[in-house]
Amino acid sequence: MTTIARRRHLLRTIHALSLGLISLLLAGCGSISKIQPSTEGQSTDLTKYSRVVVASFEDKVSEKAKDPEVQARRRTGVGRFRELLALELRSSGAFAHFSTEASTEPNTLLIGGTVTRYVEGSGFARLAIGMGAGNAYFDATVEIRDAATKQLLGTVVVDRNSWGGGGVFSMSQTLDNFMNEAAKNVSAQIVAAKTVGRFTPPKNTRPR
Question: Which residues sit opposite 180 in a β-bridge?
Answer without folding.
Answer: none
